[in-house]
Specification:
The structure is a single chain. This protein is α/β, with parallel strands linked by helices and 365 residues long. It has 2 domains: 96 residues, MurE/MurF, N-terminal domain (Udp-n-acetylmuramoylalanyl-d-glutamate--2,6- Diaminopimelate Ligase, Chain: A, domain 1), CATH 3.40.1390.10; 213 residues, UDP N-Acetylglucosamine Acyltransferase, domain 1 (3 Solenoid). It is 20% helix and 25% strand. The strands form 6 sheets. A 10-stranded parallel β-sheet has the order 6-9-12-15-18-23-26-29-32-35, with no helix packed on it. Strands 7-10-13-16-21-24-27-30-33 form a 9-stranded parallel β-sheet, with no helix packed on it. A hairpin with a 4-residue loop joins strand 36 and strand 37. The protein starts with a helix and ends in a 7-residue tail after the last helix. 34% of the residues are buried. The mean pLDDT is 96.
Length: 365
C-alpha cells in the first residue's frame, strides 16, 4: 500500500514526511526490523540511541520519535517517516496492517467429537480431532485448532482462539477475545495434598473453577490451576507467557504482564498492572501490590507495597538490591582489606604490649 495510506490507517497524529514532501509517497510492502531492514518496508527507531541506523537503512519508511534532527536526516536519504511519541507502539500497530494470523474458515472438521449437549455459537471453527465434552458453551466466532480437548461444563467467550493441543478442564470459564496457546492447561488440578501425620499424604480434591476474563492471553505450556474450593481468576487483558505456573486459588488482577517461567504459588493475590520479570517466584498467599515491578529471578516472600520495584532473593527494594550487588562484587577486595587491617591491629597490639612492658612500675604508697 502507499505510504499515505499507511499514515491514514495508523491514524498518525504527530506528523509525517508528507507534510513536507507530499510528492514522496512510495509503496510500502510490509514491515522489518531496523537491525535487518528489507527494501520497501516500514521499520522504526525508538530513540536517538539508534540514530546511526538512519545512515545505513534500506527500509523505505521509518517510524521515528519526535526528534526534528532525525526526521530531517531521514528525508535527506529519501526515507519517508512518521513521527510518534511512542514509536514502538505505533510499529506494533503497523505490523497488524500487513500481517494477519492464520484463521481457518468457519466449520467443523469431520473427525471432531462433539457431545450433543454442546451449544455452538455462530461462525465457529473446530479443527481435526477436537474433543468437546458435555454441557460446554462455545461463543460466536470461536476458533478451536486441532487436538484441543475441552472437558465438561466449560464456557468459552466470543472470538476466543484455542491453539492446537491445549486442554480446557471442567468448570473453566474463558472470556471474550482470549488466546490460549499450544500445550496450555487451563483449570487443571491444583497441587493439594494434606499430611496424614504418618508420613503419607491425603489428596485434596480440587472442586473449584478457573476463570479467565476478557482478552487474557496464555502462552505455550503454561498452567492455570483450579483450587480445592472457590476460584482461580486471571483479570482482563493480563498476559501470561510460556511455561507460567499459576497455582490454585491465585487472583491475578487486570493488565498484568507475567513473562516466561514465572511460578506463582497457591493463594497469591496479584493486584492490577503488576509487571514481573522472567523466572520470578512468589510464595504462598503473598499480596503483590498494584503496579509492582519485580525484576528477573526475584523471589517474593512477603507482601509488596503498591508501586514497589523489587529485586533479589528474597526480593527487597530495587535500589537497596543494587547497592548490595555493588558491595557483593567488592567482597574479595573487602575481605583482603579486613585481613590487612587485622594484621595491622595485631602488630599494633604487639608493639603496645612491648611498650607497656618497658614502662617503670608505679607502686602505690
Amino acid at each position: 500500500m502507499k505510504f499515505s495510506e499507511v499514515v491514514q490507517q495508523l491514524g498518525a497524529v504527530d506528523g509525517s514526511s508528507l507534510d513536507e514532501r507530499p510528492d514522496l509517497n512510495p509503496e510500502i510492502s510490509g514491515v522489518s526490523a531496523i537491525e535487518s531492514p528489507v527494501a520497501g518496508t516500514l521499520s522504526y527507531i525508538e530513540s536517538r540511541k539508534y540514530k546511526t541506523f538512519l545512515k545505513t537503512t534500506i527500509a523505505q519508511g521509518l517510524i521515528l520519535p519526535m526528534d526534528r534532527e532525525m526526521q530531517q536526516q531521514a528525508l535527506a536519504h529519501e526515507v519517508v517517516w512518521i513521527g510518534s511519541r511512542n514509536p514502538r507502539l505505533l510499529f506494533a500497530e503497523a505490523i497488524a496492517l500487513f500481517y494477519k494470523p492464520f484463521q481457518p474458515a468457519p466449520g467443523i472438521h469431520p473427525t471432531a467429537i462433539i457431545d450433543p449437549s454442546v451449544k455452538l455459537g455462530r461462525d465457529v471453527s473446530i479443527g481435526a480431532y477436537v474433543v468437546i465434552q458435555p454441557d460446554v458453551v462455545i461463543g460466536d466466532g470461536v476458533c478451536i485448532h486441532p487436538n484441543v480437548v475441552i472437558y465438561p461444563d466449560v464456557v468459552i467467550g466470543d472470538r476466543t482462539i484455542l491453539h492446537a493441543n491445549c486442554v480446557i478442564h471442567e468448570q473453566t470459564q474463558i472470556g471474550r477475545n482470549c488466546v490460549i496457546h499450544s500445550g496450555a492447561a487451563i483449570g487443571s488440578e491444583g497441587f493439594g495434598f494434606v499430611p496424614r501425620g504418618d508420613g503419607t499424604w491425603f489428596k485434596m480434591e480440587q472442586s473449584g473453577r478457573t476463570i479467565l476474563e476478557d482478552e487474557v492471553e496464555v502462552g505455550c505450556n503454561a498452567a492455570v490451576d483450579r483450587p480445592a474450593v472457590g476460584e482461580t481468576r486471571v483479570g482482563a487483558r493480563t498476559k501470561l507467557d510460556n511455561l507460567n505456573q499459576i497455582g490454585h486459588d491465585v487472583k491475578v488482577g487486570k493488565d498484568c504482564i507475567i513473562p516466561a517461567l514465572a511460578a506463582i504459588a497457591g493463594g497469591v493475590k496479584i493486584e492490577d498492572e503488576v509487571v514481573l520479570g522472567g523466572q520470578v517466584a512468589i510464595s504462598n498467599r503473598v499480596v503483590v501490590g498494584r503496579g509492582t515491578r519485580a525484576t528477573m529471578r526475584s523471589v517474593i516472600i512477603s507482601n509488596t507495597e503498591p508501586g514497589s520495584v523489587v529485586s533479589g532473593h528474597p526480593a527487597i527494594p530495587h535500589q537497596t538490591w543494587l547497592r548490595s550487588s555493588v558491595l557483593s562484587s567488592r567482597l574479595p577486595e573487602t575481605q583482603q582489606t579486613i585481613k590487612d587491617m587485622q594484621k595491622q591491629i595485631a602488630e599494633l597490639q604487639q608493639q603496645l604490649a612491648i611498650l607497656q612492658a618497658q614502662l617503670p612500675t608505679v607502686h602505690s604508697s
